[in-house]
Write a structure and sequence with these properties.
Number of helices: 7
Distance between the termini: 35 Å
CATH topology: Alpha-Beta Plaits
CATH superfamily: Nucleoside diphosphate kinase-like domain
Strand order of the largest sheet: 1-2
Shape: globular
Helix content: 40-55%
Largest sheet: 2 strands, antiparallel
CATH class: Alpha Beta
Radius of gyration: 15 Å
Structural class: alpha+beta
């Protein structure tokens, strides 16, 4: 959030043909971060991750579309920005792995869990984008 890249990130997902169905701008509490990243709790970098993520607000988004989790991960690039290709979000906007600017769910199951931590079902907006028929068969 602090880097002023939210609009550029949204633009990339919209240009790909994905549909934004929910978004929130909010603080990332330590409690929430520990729950969100519970699978990493035993890793040596975990305390630093929580401290960094808790240092400012976050923008949580929910995107829908064909293979959005898989394709979204490709668009993000590798977790380590040094391994990310130019043209990916991390390849273009990140330098150090400990200062990653974006998170993407690694599976549909993880996405469902992570979405439920931030959004109520009624906060997900169901609509048909005017670009839908140009993107999908």
């Amino acid at each position: 959030m602090q880097c002023g890249l939210v609009g550029k990130i949204i633009k990339r997902f919209e240009q790909k043909g994905f549909r934004l169905v929910a978004m929130k701008f909010l603080p990332a509490s330590e409690e929430h971060l520990k729950q969100h990243y519970i699978d990493l709790k035993d890793r040596p970098f975990f305390p630093g991750l929580v401290k960094y993520m808790n240092s400012g607000p976050v923008v949580a988004m929910v995107w829908e579309g064909l293979n959005v989790v898989k394709t979204g991960r490709v668009m993000l690039g590798e977790t380590n920005p040094a391994d990310s290709k130019p043209g990916t979000i991390r390849g273009d906007f990140c330098i150090q792995v400990g200062r990653n600017i974006i998170h993407g769910s690694d599976s549909v199951k993880s996405a469902e869990k992570e979405i439920s931590l931030r959004f109520k079902p009624e906060e997900l907006v169901d609509y048909k984008s005017c670009a839908h028929d140009w993107v999908y068969e």
